[in-house]
Amino acid sequence: MTTLPKSRQPELKTALPGPKSAEIMARDSQHLSTSYMRPYPFVPDHGEGVWLTDPDGNTMLDFFAGIAVSTTGYAHPHVVEAVTAQMKKFAHVCLTDYPQEITTSLAERLAAHIERPDEKWRVFFGNSGAEAVEAAIKLARNHTGRSHIISTLGSFHGRTYGAITLTGSKTKYKAGFGPLLPNVTHIPYPNPFRPPLGSTPETCGDAVLAHLELLFKTVIPSNEVAAFIIEPMQGEGGYIVPPAGFLTKLRQLADQHGFLLIYDEVQAGMGRTGKMFSFQQFIARSEECQPDIVTLAKGVASGLPISAMLAKESVMTWAPGSHGSTFGGNPVAAAAAHATLDLLEGVVKHPGCGESLMHNAAEVGGFILAELKKMQREFPFIGDVRGEGLFIGIEFVAPDGKADGKLRDAASMAMFERGLLNLDCGESVIRVSPPLILTREDAQTGLQIMREALRSLPAR
Ligand SMILES: Cc1ncc(COP(=O)(O)O)c(C=O)c1O
């Protein structure tokens, strides 16, 4: 293991990329798929905690966690130990055919976070977010005997055919790939900062649901709708939190018309918002908005590939053999998931992170959000700062209030050049989604880099 920089500051020894990184990047550009984007010239070589180092010895502070994946940071000893122990037992014996204690107990553990006394849940394991979403679509259609799926604009659900059809964020994900899945309709996401359909921040949730009811009267027979899939807090679309009451009313509409409610928690779930699942933030505020199906991936296993589609027992009615996966529920990834849950739940404590990583996400996230709101006063081009826990979006605006993607890109690069790994989302948003082991001290370092980067932007 490497030694952390004593000052806990990024250490930039070369211009980025350094010579060793540049050599890897050149080979990468020759041999890997042309679909990969390479916006930032950084080549990770090894990591520890919230720090990533490239082969030239440049160490960066990580504020994006490989897109909200590295829940426990890099090379967490508890995760490494769990993975190593499972590797010594067996790495694979297909879960579709053979039950395994490690996945049985993982299913019990995940379900325990959502089950209610009168409502048991079951779990299907896959390898990626898209697979969890595909499983959710198939189950919803199979269970209801209906075909139509409603999704939201701005959403991201993955890259497989069903998942890109449901995705509503960018046409480039769909261009040239048709035909996609039939019977999918997108309606606006209730974004309080940019209220759709002529609504206000307060009324945007009602406006979206009124729009859906209009569609039910005019173009989509509601008795043909299998499910509504939604990110309870929208990730790729801009780290957006819907208004209070929206999910509750959506739940009521689902019950009224008999369709299933699927929450895609792939990005916002696994403790990131300070609750295990982001919809539980609304439940904690006394909203009755329990879903029928939940999809999980990304943060489940601190970087090992495993996903889960959880459904109420009354909904998971498909027949044996109707769905499966060779690698899904891989035991090594399951071991990493158990270790991740240990830290999220506080069964195992991480030094400096209080009673649990979920608690730390709420605590340090609250601190970052408050500091960013102060920064908003200094920088008028920050139009909005929003989020829950360590799921935070910073939206950049032009003087006329329109989204300013170019300025966001410049800000993101200025932060990167100062040693802060970050990632854009939406039209003009930078997401703050660090590992959940981020301490207040490291958060302060990141915020200071952000401040300096924003000050360096040309005056407007
Ligand atoms: C909400 C959401 N759902 C699904 C996915 C797809 O996950 P994966 O890339 O693991 O297939 C993503 C990925 O960003 C996501 O953010």
Automatic annotation (TrEMBL):
GO terms for molecular function: identical protein binding; pyridoxal phosphate binding; transaminase activity. Its cofactor is pyridoxal 5'-phosphate. Belongs to the class-III pyridoxal-phosphate-dependent aminotransferase family. Gene3D superfamilies: Aspartate Aminotransferase, domain 1 (3.90.1150.10), Type I PLP-dependent aspartate aminotransferase-like (Major domain) (3.40.640.10). It holds the Pfam family Aminotran_3. Residues 1-22 are annotated as: Disordered. This is Acetyl ornithine aminotransferase family protein. InterPro entries: Aminotrans_3, Class-III_PLP-dep_AT, PyrdxlP-dep_Trfase, PyrdxlP-dep_Trfase_major, PyrdxlP-dep_Trfase_small. SUPFAM superfamilies: PLP-dependent transferases (SSF53383). Keywords: Aminotransferase, Pyridoxal phosphate, Transferase.
